[in-house]
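Repro:
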Amino acid sequence: MLREFDLDSLQGTAAYFVKAFDKVTQYLLSLDPDRLLAGFKAVAEGKDPQTEAKLNLYGGWEDRWSLLRGHTMGHYLTALAQAYRQTRRGKQDINELLAARINYTVGQLKACQDRSSTGYLFASPETHFDVVEGKRTGQQWVPWYTMHKIMAGLVNVHKYTGNQEALEVAAKLGDWAYARTSRWDQDLQRRVLKVEYGGMNDVLYELYEYTKKPEHLAAAHKFDEDDLFAAIAEGKNVLVNKHANTQIPKFIGALHHYRLLGEAAAFYYQAARAFWEIVIRDYTYVTGGNSQSEHFRQPGALDATRDNLNNETCNAYNMLLLTRELFKLSADVKYTNFYERAFFNEIMASLNPETGMTTYFKPMGTGYFKAFATPTESFWCCTGTGMENFTKLNDSIYFHTDTDLYVNLY
């Protein structure tokens, strides 16, 4: 298996890379963590942010009417941690600001979690999870998707900064996830997994690598969608009209399952490889992006759905996560060829280099243009992955074994 270099071991010195990193890091530091924390604090105090008109929340997907409120916190933590790691051997003033922001935010999240007897930490009440399970009526949205972002942010803070408090908070969330998922029978599991849940399997496998708690491993298994994996592993394209970015993280998690457990879990490696092949063959534009209005459409008929809603940035972000891990396992050049194409045409093209704002879609239809997020009134999913993309620009340039250097991006 190939290994990557630590984020602080190399620097991207191309002017466009430097400017992109600086712009996005400035944006991260311009955000007020207390406004991102407001929903978490309200829930910790037993309040529903939807009914608290005076909360100082950000707008867009973070406002009090949004059922995705809190997802930005996870991306924000990951981006801060990556930027911290990259500036550890230089830019000391920025590094200290990032460290202070990380420590403050994690400390406030811990204070919120400490008020819960179960370890629950979220910017919406736990009743949202009851709705998904059919135990309560109400508007159904995607709380497990948001929980994945929060947990991943905490785990990444620990990974890149060594912050032990972040791991403690993530571990308690893992305990909460185990307590909840351990009550699922097969029917309830299938019901829950029909609703977008991000990379919950992936983050719980990673959490288990740190904690070694069997409960975290068991919870990760609950998010492995084996029926889907089996169909894909057999080469069946069952993705038609499915929400694209719901599917990609599932296979990142499947691959993590294999990386963790080895040949006993070879089925999950087979599924991840087969999924990648189907997406590249049937759904990927020449730029490396995929989807229309967030969905996979008819296979091999991409021209029919060229419009202003193609190539969701989150999809490229996740396809590159999957691709880099497949490359590390195989050293197959087909993965680096795709990586380079999507990285430059989808990720680097998702940024407004003058403002540091990022796109949701990159249109393939004639006559359309890219629309960029606003600093405080958007907070789309792709705003969050955008924060992450531009604070890890050097993470896949080189890979290595004990004796050989592999160059991905020349």
